[in-house]
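OP here, attaching both records as promised.
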Amino acid sequence: MAADQIVLAAIAGAHGIRGEVRLKLFTDDAQSLARHARFDAGGRALVLAAIRADKPGTAIARFEGVTDRNLAEAMRGLTLSVSRAALPPLAEGEYYVADYLGRTVVDETGEVVGTVKSIDNFGASDIIDIALARGGTVMVPFLAHVVREEADRLIVDKAWLQ
């Protein structure tokens, strides 16, 4: 994927028999996807025909040319991205996960502890999953009193790295 592409959702599988798919959203809601007509899905252009909200963090979508369950199921695992230029400006406190993936994580002393593996939200706040340099992973809340941003790295309170 090109560096200027931002992933907005991933296809989790087929929904029903008429070609609809279940989406895992990486945006606030389904309507934030509705404003885009086309998505890049691994080099393949997908045109959104319809979308509706489902459970929190998910949506049901239909794409042009996808007319049955077999075609929908074959799309499982594809990510839907758009150009960064096609997105609205970020509000205060908002960020793109893509801007943090792979970023170096250090403790307060400057010692490298690992890299950002993923950022998830399980309901309370965003959680940073850090691949530790010593092996394994640790999850820390992406909160101001735990994580600070400095240039091209994140500084994490050592107490959260135990």
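Record two, same layout:
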Amino acid sequence: MTILNRLYASSGSEVIIETLEIQVGSISYWLTKGWEDITVTLEDGTTKTFEACGIDIALPARNADGTQDLKFAISNISGVVSTAIRQALNDLSQTSLTYRCYVSTDLTAPTTTPYTMAVKSGYWTAVEVQITAGYMNVLDTAWPRFRYMLPDFPGLRYTN
């Protein structure tokens, strides 16, 4: 049994550390849930320090409905987050989010494969920011992507 499975099942002396990297264009925000900043090694071997903040993360459900959304809320007491999120929501095509999970006894690599998702929507108030990020929604896409329509392919029309 892995440490992460044991932690989910019955706890232990270790603690699960959840982190978020929010990338808005060329700017990255490194946030972690808790009261202390942590320095960890990313999956590519670089070292980053995640800033502690009041954050709550709801992981995507494991189901077959086609929408795998990660939702999170961040404390907006300082106002720094709302400025970044306002920029992110104005240009969703340039915004992504990476979720990483660490165990407190091993900060040399993420415990599981990181989730990288596009920011879909969100809003902010005076005290918090709510964001929804997710993978591409496969159920809402046309297949095949290139559609054979009559204006482009008149030979498709059936005539008697």
